[in-house]
Amino acid sequence: MPLPKPPSKPATLLTAFAGAANESPELKPARVAPATATPVATNAMPVAVPVAREDRRAERAEPRGTAPAHLALVESRQAAARNGKKARPATGPAKLFVLDTNVLMHDPTSLFRFEEHDVFLPMMTLEELDDHKKGMSEVARNARQVSRSLDALVAASKAPIEDGIALDALGNNEALGRLFFQTTAFSGALPASLPSGKADNQILAVVRSLQEVHAGREVVLVSKDINMRVKARALGLPAEDYYNDKVLEDTDVLYTGVLPLPANFWSKHGRGMESWQHSGSTYYRIAGPLVAELIVNQFVFLEHGQPFYAQVKEIRGKTATLRVLRDYTHAKNAVWGITARNREQSFALNLLMDPDCDFVTLIGQAGTGKTLITLAAGLSQTLETKRFSEIIVTRATVPVGEDIGFLPGTEEEKMAPWMGALEDNLEVLNKSDESTGEWGRAATNDLIRTRIRIKSMNFMRGRTFISKYLIIDEAQNLTPKQMKTLITRAGPGTKVVCLGNIAQIDTPYLTEGSSGLTFVVDRFKGWPHSGHVTLQRGERSRLADHAGEVL
Predict the structure, then answer these.
(1) What's the angle, vertex CA 510, arms to CA 547 and CA 125, rounded to 5?
(2) Which of 55, 134, 369, 383 is most buried, taking the most CB atoms under 10 A from its CB?
(3) Is 549 helix (H, G, I), strand (E, B) or coil?
(4) Ramachandran area for residue 74 (φ above 0: left; ψ -120 to 50: alpha; else beta)
(5) How far apart are CA 332 and CA 37, in angstroms?
(6) How many helices (H) and strands (E) does the chain have?
(7) Which among 262, 271, 310 has a CA at the least distance from the CA of 290?
(8) Are 187 and 44 in contact (CB under 8 A)?
(9) Max Cα separation, the chain?
(10) What is the 8-class DSSP label of residue 448?
């Protein structure tokens, strides 16, 4: 029977942990079905397991369906219904999940993410938490948060700790299981070649012992460490990754923001169609089978016959309102001298220039023009239309190779080496107007630099940006918690633009599915004041395009 994952509802990822000393970085966790191996003849190793209550032991000892067990299950469901909680499903006993330390340091709320199942913490997990609680890093903060949660759970429990602690004692109503600590020693059989002093092996021994004690119950090890999971499966122990931090299992289904219309679109949706104009834009109200698939602020296009490019502005019942887009591929609609070179760039410029759109995300491979069109739109709305007072640029300072060490100077001078992409694009934008001459371009360049501020993410906490154009570059290297910190800095009149390529993640413990950029694209989908476009076509050079395909 395949092991189900923890609940699919994604939890807010607080941080990408630096990892315990026994872990190895991973970018894509392997999914291997838990193996069912024959028991291995081994030496005994002293471990500890919880002492179950006598009534629970008696219930496990009875055959399923006997009167006492059945009545106990009915009473537990009735009690849960009276308290307004979901009852455990009648598919058998709840699983027992044994948590590795790295899961708790990765997501401090993971204790409450296993729905009706029980959670078990080995003593070695608590020891490792204690080792990592010191310092100002995210890992230390997470370890301290877990310790506070455990302390609050123990304090709120009136029953003996051996009986387990209700995980909903602190108000987490979705956690219907119980928390068990290692309280007594027991013998777990592992191969003699495994060193007994290693933390991973002690946790594996606990899992083996729990399997022997709870013979009729599924015991599963949950770990973020690939080697730990592989070792567990080699010993015949069920193990799986912690999936609750992943927004999507497969990034191929990530929202692109663009939907091609079928060739028979007008014949199926043109009957009873309404059309009008407002503020220089043309609108259509349509009804038909495709309306159910549309999302607010999604771009739709039809290139069969007469080209049609529009944006979904409203969905009401079985009707949808489409607004015809401004064509930014035409020179008359150039933004700071830049025109869109393809369909997706034109869609992106419609979002960037829309005063009603507060949050924009652009994802694309290298050379698709993300930074160039974003900066052009920012300069146009800052220096020409005066919609924003200045442009603020920030990014995650994650090196591709070895770090070069500390940098001298002020905050902006320290950030300068990370802002090479900004400098390159400013050079392109400043050369777009040849009529101004050398002196004119120098004056324009000085004016531009007075309106652009380069800020470090480390000093964003507590700030509020009013009427600013905030560009978050290389956003794929941010965790959802960091992304939340930056986006919530936005005050009245501020527009936030996130740029990134989820195929180029440099943070060791982030994947395409758990990146903060993937997180915000999925969570902001359909909000009337946000938009997203995935840029498909590279426009840097034929060399860059070919390298992106073959390398």
Answers:
(1) 150
(2) 369
(3) helix
(4) alpha
(5) 70
(6) 16, 20
(7) 262
(8) yes
(9) 93
(10) H
Any idea what DSSP says for residue 119? Answer: E
C-alpha angle 375-378-384 in degrees, rounded to nearest 5: 125
State the Cα–Cα distance between residues 114 and 177, nearest whole angstrom. Answer: 8
Query: Which residue spans within 28-106 are E strands per DSSP?
Result: 43-49, 96-99
Is the pLDDT score of 410 beyond 70? no
Answer for the pair 388, 378: CB distance below 8 angstroms, yes or no.
yes
The model's pLDDT over 355-383, given as tens digits with 9 standing for 90+, comes to 999 999 999 888 888 989 999 999 999 99
List, in order, residues 6 or more apart from 109 with CB less than 8 Å away: 11, 12, 14, 149
Nearest Cα to Cα of residue 101 among 223, 206, 229: 223
Annotate 206-247 with three-state secondary structure: HHHHHHHHCCCCCEEEECCCHHHHHHHHHCCCCEECCCCCCC
**Sheet containing 452-454: order of strands:** 452-454, 390-395, 468-473, 495-500, 359-364, 530-535
Report, in this order, helix, strand and coil percent for the chain, each rounded to 5: 35, 20, 45
Q: What is the pTM of this model?
A: 0.66
132: amino acid identity, one letter? H
